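// run 5 | inverse folding | seed 20
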C-alpha cells in the first residue's frame, strides 16, 4: 500500500557566528569535462523584490506593472539603451512592485490525445487562451496542492495536540504500565490518542479540497501524453499525480476510463473500460521490469496492508479488463515508476517514464499459486531516454564530497560562517576564478546612524510554541503559527503579508518552530559560474515547498543614501508599501489585519519609496548570487521577531516549489518594464535569459 506522507525537513544545529572573512580561493585544478546542463539560465539581478510567486493560490500572471522590488545585479549582460518611452521615473532609477493574491484557476477542459501516436512533450500553451504555458499550469497546480496539504497538516497537528490535552485532563496520567509503574503523562496520552483517534490523512483532504474547488489540472481522464508533463518529471506523492490528473487514484495501480466515456464521439471506435496509466512501485511480487519492456501484474488479490504477497485470485474486471481492452484498442498508456528515495519527504519519488503499449496478455498461476493476469508492455519509440530502471532510481546526482567537484575554486565561500560549507565552482572562465569583490557576512550589518527599535515583550511559552494554544506570538500571526513543525524544523504554510516569529524576549526554546528563519542554512548548496549570467546558486538536496532558504544580508542603509549611485546588489525593504498597496503593489493576505498593530510610525502616510534597503555590493551572503527567473522556485517573505517596525523587517527567501538536487535557485525580481532610466533620460532595457516557458523576455 502506498502511504502518503507527513512533512519532513532536514535538521540542522546552529553554530556560533565566527568573524566574517573573505572567501579564500583554492588553487584551481585542471579543468575537467563540463557538467551538462545542470543550471537554469538566468537573467541579470535587479534591485527589486520579486512579484510574489505564491505557491498557495493560483492566478494568471500579470504583466509586471507599478514599482518593481528587491535587488539589482547586472552580471555580464548587455544593457540596451533605447529612446525614452514616456516621462522619467521619479526618484530612484527602478521602481518596486509586489504581486497580489492569486485567485482559483479555471478548470482546463479535457482534450483527449490521439491514440495513434505520441503527443509532443509539454505543449507550449494550455489551449485555453490564458497565455500560460502548460508547464506553468502544472507548477501552479502543485503549489496549490502543497498549500492545502500544509494547511491540513497544521490542522491535524492542532487536533492531535487538543486530543492529548483532553486525555490528560480526564486523568490519563493515573494509568499504570504492565510493570506497575506509572507512565509518563505525555507518553500515555499519546498512546491513548493513537488508539482512540486515528490520524487523518492531510494528503487525501488536500485532494478533496482541490476537487471541490475545481482546481484539478486535468479533471477528465486523457489518453496519452499530458501537456506540461515531460518524461523524467518527478512527483513526491501519489496525491500530486491525482491533482494533476496523471493518475487519478491515490492507491490503485491501474487508472482507466470507465463506461461513461463510451458514448463520446471521440471514443466511438474504442472498447471500454480503457487503461490510461499504470504505477509500478514494487507492490506485486509477480511484476518484472526491464525498463523498455514490462511484465505487469493485474490488480486484486494482493495483501496491500501486509507483506504484499498474493493471497487470492484476480478477476477480469475494472483495471484488469481495461488493460486487456487497451491491447485490443492499441492506445498508449502512461507508465510511472515509484522508487524509495531518502531525499523525498514521503520516502518515495515517482517518475513519469513515458508511453507504453500493451502488446500481449495472458493468465497464469502466480508465485503464490493464485490466478493472476499478466500484461506485457513495450515502450514507444521516439521518446526521451528513461531516467529510471528496474531496481533503482537514476538521475544526475549531487556530489558527495566537495573535493570531488569539477572546477572547484573555493571550498567554502562563507569561510565557515554557515552551518554547512558552500563551495564555488567555475567551469566557464579560463583560467577559473572564484567569486570576489565582497566580504561574506551571514547576518545584517547596521549602518551607523540607524537605530533599531527596542525589543518587544515576548511569549511565555515553555518548549515549543506549537504546543501552546494561547501563545501570544501565534495571536500576532492571526491565531495560528505561520509554520508547521516536523522534527523541530518548520515549513511556511503560505506566503503572508508579514510573518511574526518569536524573538529575544520569548521564553520558548531556540528550536521552537516559530523561530524557523533563525535556524541558519539547512541545505547543501553550491555557488557556480553560469555561461551567460554570472554566478548562480544550486542545491544538492531536495528542498520542500515552504522551507526556508536564507536571509538576504548586507549593509542596512537608508535608500536616500544610495540615490544616484550604481548599485547592483541592493534590496529595498518595501514591506510597508506592499501592505498598503502603494504605487501599484498588490496586498498579500493579512495586510489589513496586521497594519494597525505595527509600529505607530507605520500608521502614517508611507512614502512611495521604501525608507531602508539592504546593500550587498561589498558585504553579504550567498543570497547575493541567487538569480532572477520569470518562473522562480523561491519567493520573498518579510519576517519580524524582536520588534514591530515593518520598515526594518528581515527579508527572507523561501521555497515555492519542490526543488530537486542540482536545480538552480531563483526568484522574480519584479521589475516593471521600462522602469529603468539612464543618466541621459533614456529608458534602459535588459534582456531576460532565464529560459522559463513563460519568460517575459526582458528583465526591465
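// decoded
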Amino acid at each position: 500500500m502506498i502511504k502518503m506522507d507527513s512533512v519532513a525537513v532536514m535538521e540542522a544545529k546552529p553554530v556560533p557566528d565566527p568573524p566574517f572573512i573573505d572567501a579564500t580561493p583554492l588553487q584551481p585544478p585542471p579543468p575537467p569535462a563540463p557538467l551538462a546542463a545542470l543550471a537554469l539560465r538566468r537573467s541579470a539581478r535587479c534591485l527589486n523584490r520579486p512579484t510574489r510567486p505564491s505557491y498557495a493560490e493560483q492566478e494568471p500572471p500579470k504583466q509586471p506593472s507599478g514599482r518593481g522590488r528587491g535587488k539589482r545585479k547586472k552580471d555580464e549582460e548587455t544593457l540596451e539603451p533605447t529612446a525614452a518611452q514616456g516621462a522619467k521615473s521619479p526618484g530612484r532609477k527602478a521602481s518596486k512592485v509586489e504581486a497580489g493574491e492569486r485567485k482559483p484557476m479555471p478548470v482546463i477542459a479535457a482534450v483527449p490525445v490521439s491514440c495513434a501516436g505520441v503527443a509532443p512533450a509539454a505543449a507550449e500553451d494550455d489551449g485555453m487562451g490564458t497565455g500560460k504555458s502548460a508547464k506553468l499550469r502544472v507548477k501552479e497546480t502543485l503549489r496549490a496542492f502543497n498549500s492545502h496539504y500544509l494547511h491540513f497538516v497544521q490542522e491535524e497537528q492542532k487536533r492531535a495536540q487538543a486530543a492529548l490535552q483532553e486525555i490528560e485532563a480526564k486523568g490519563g496520567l493515573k494509568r499504570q504500565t504492565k510493570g506497575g509503574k506509572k507512565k509518563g503523562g505525555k507518553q500515555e496520552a499519546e498512546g491513548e490518542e493513537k488508539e482512540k483517534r486515528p490520524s487523518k490523512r492531510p494528503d487525501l483532504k488536500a485532494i478533496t479540497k482541490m476537487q471541490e474547488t475545481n482546481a484539478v489540472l486535468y479533471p477528465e481522464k486523457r489518453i496519452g501524453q499530458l501537456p506540461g508533463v515531460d518524461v523524467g518529471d518527478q512527483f513526491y506523492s501519489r496525491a500530486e499525480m491525482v491533482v494533476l490528473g496523471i493518475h487519478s487514484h491515490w492507491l490503485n495501480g491501474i487508472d482507466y476510463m470507465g463506461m461513461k466515456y463510451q458514448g463520446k464521439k471521440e471514443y466511438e471506435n474504442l472498447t471500454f473500460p480503457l487503461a490510461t496509466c499504470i504505477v509500478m512501485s514494487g507492490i506485486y511480487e509477480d511484476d518484472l521490469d526491464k525498463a523498455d519492456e514490462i511484465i505487469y501484474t493485474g490488480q486484486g488479490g494482493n495483501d496491500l496492508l501486509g507483506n504484499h504477497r498474493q493471497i487470492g485470485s484476480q478477476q477480469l474486471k475494472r483495471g484488469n479488463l481495461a488493460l486487456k481492452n487497451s491491447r485490443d484498442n492499441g492506445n498508449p498508456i502512461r507508465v510511472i515508476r515509484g522508487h524509495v528515495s531518502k531525499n523525498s519527504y514521503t520516502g518515495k519519488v515517482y517518475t513519469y517514464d513515458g508511453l507504453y503499449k500493451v502488446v500481449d496478455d495472458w493468465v497464469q498461476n502466480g508465485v503464490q499459486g493464485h490466478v493472476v493476469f499478466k500484461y506485457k508492455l513495450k515502450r514507444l519509440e521516439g521518446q526521451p531516454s528513461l531516467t529510471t530502471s528496474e531496481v533503482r532510481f537514476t538521475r544526475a546526482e549531487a556530489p558527495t564530497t566537495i573535493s570531488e567537484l569539477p572546477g572547484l575554486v573555493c571550498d567554502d565561500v562563507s569561510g565557515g560562517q554557515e552551518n554547512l560549507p558552500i563551495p564555488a565552482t567555475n567551469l566557464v572562465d579560463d583560467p577559473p576564478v572564484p567569486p570576489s569583490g565582497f566580504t561574506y557576512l551571514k547576518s545584517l550589518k547596521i549602518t551607523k546612524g540607524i537605530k533599531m527599535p527596542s525589543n518587544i515583550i515576548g511569549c511565555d511559552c515553555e518548549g515549543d510554541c506549537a504546543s501552546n494554544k494561547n501563545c501570544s506570538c501565534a495571536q500576532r500571526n492571526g491565531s495560528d503559527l505561520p509554520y508547521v513543525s516536523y522534527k523541530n524544523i518548520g515549513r511556511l504554510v503560505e506566503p503572508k503579508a508579514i510573518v511574526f516569529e518569536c524573538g529575544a524576549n520569548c521564553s520558548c526554546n531556540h528550536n521552537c518552530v516559530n523561530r524557523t528563519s533563525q535556524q541558519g542554512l539547512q541545505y547543501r548548496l553550491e555557488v557556480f559560474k553560469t555561461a551567460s549570467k554570472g554566478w548562480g546558486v544550486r542545491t544538492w538536496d531536495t528542498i520542500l515547498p515552504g522551507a526556508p532558504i536564507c536571509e538576504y544580508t548586507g549593509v542596512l542603509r537608508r535608500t536616500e543614501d544610495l540615490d544616484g549611485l550604481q548599485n547592483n546588489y541592493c534590496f529595498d525593504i518595501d514591506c510597508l508599501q506592499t501592505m498598503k498597496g502603494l504605487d501599484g503593489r498588490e496586498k498579500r493576505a493579512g495586510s489589513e489585519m496586521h497594519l494597525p498593530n505595527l509600529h505607530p510610525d507605520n500608521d502614517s502616510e508611507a512614502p512611495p519609496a521604501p525608507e531602508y534597503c539592504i546593500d550587498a555590493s561589498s558585504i553579504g551572503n550567498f543570497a547575493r548570487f541567487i538569480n532572477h527567473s520569470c518562473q522562480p522556485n523561491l519567493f520573498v517573505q518579510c519576517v519580524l521577531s524582536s520588534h514591530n517596525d515593518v520598515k526594518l523587517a528581515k527579508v527572507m527567501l523561501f521555497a515555492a516549489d519542490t526543488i530537486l538536487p542540482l536545480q538552480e535557485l531563483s526568484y522574480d525580481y519584479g521589475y516593471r518594464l521600462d522602469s529603468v532610466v539612464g543618466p541621459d533620460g533614456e529608458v534602459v532595457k535588459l534582456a531576460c535569459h532565464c529560459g522559463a516557458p513563460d519568460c517575459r523576455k526582458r528583465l526591465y
